[in-house]
Amino acid sequence: MSRKHIMDKIAIIVQRYGREINGGAEVHARLLAERLKEKYDVDVLTSCSLAYPAWDNHYPAGEEMMNGVRVLRFKDEGANRKKTRRLGRYLRGNWKYYHRGYTINNFITLSIRRIWYRRKKNHGRVFDRWIVNHGPVCKEMITYLEQEKNQYKAFIYFNYPFYPTYFGLQHTSGKSILIPLAHDEPMLYLSGFEKMFSLPGFIMYNTESERLLLESAHPVTRTIRSDLAGVGFDLPVLDENSEPPISFPYFVYIGRIDVGKGCLELMNYFSMMNRSQHRNIKLVMIGKNHLKTFVKDDNIIFTGFIGEEEKLLYLQHCAGLIISSRHESLSMVTLEAMSFGKPVLANGYCDVLKRHIEKSQAGFLYYDVKDFSVQVDKILNLSDNGKQVIARNGMQYAEKNYRWERIIEKFDIAIDYVGA
């Protein structure tokens, strides 16, 4: 490999970064960084936090090497639980206008809030304070970006609503690639984001659904060059002789266990289905549990955060993956399950998941508890041929649309474009 020069240096900015973090944006950032390092000198700029939304400064500030990637960590200087709770109340207050879609009443309510916001003389500062409350407040990171921006050919920002992206883009603008990870949530429609979405030189969307959503919410993005990339997957190497981690038929949920991810609804549906049909089907929930209240059911198993090998073992032997979120910009775990040849049962209210299922023909959709029960039955009663068809469809879909080689080619083009 030829010696790299300074213009081959890029920075990836993401709110959290670490092996123990299994959030979609954070895993996406880590996988991309570890692929791009083969062609570029990659620095990851991130916070010291492990927990969201506590921003706990778990990791020491400074530099470390992780899987060949240089990681620069900056302390969150705004760690304040009161502010975090206030943000939580704001989001919960808007949630009810959001789950049922934008009805006339919801539209009127949201419109009144927008008018109130825009009439405030200092609405720019109000919005900036809201971003600060969202965190993580890494002021030294922003200073670093301002002072060192000429070292880098390009900056890749993950996730639109966080402090590092919002304030970082203001200093690197045209040299930046934004991966917004947008989904249909109340904060996306806040007018304060309009300026931020006008700043990147390139926007890399995960799906066409995400592109259409963002261009509708913030038309300024239509003028910015963009493409679709997502994240890549390697075909798994499976040990055919491995033993199932549990003996009962089971489904898996993988990811952050949170109300916002539809987990409480999923647990209720699963428990109701088992009771009504006198079953003992298991649901294995893999990931950190953020639920304060949850359904107590012996058929629902929490593993906590587990290593990659153990996670893949659960996925290899499951009857299928259940993805319960209504709000996804890509859903890496859905694509991972498809690459394993596993059927996916997805929340049909999420447009991204619905399109994955319809295009791949590798799974099923549910909208309520009755649908849920019917689709679980379909998966459990698939014939050997039916299982093979779904497995083939899923693997072909993941291979065709989410190959690393093609994704890196797209990032090469974007990096050259903003770094020209």
From TrEMBL:
Top-level taxon of the source organism: Bacteria
Domain Glycosyl transferase family: 248-385
Pfam entry (one): Glycos_transf_1
GO function terms (MF aspect): glycosyltransferase activity
InterPro entries assigned to the protein according to its UniProt record, in alphabetical order: Glyco_trans_1
Native organism: Proteiniphilum saccharofermentans
Listed name of the protein: Glycosyl transferase family 1 domain-containing protein
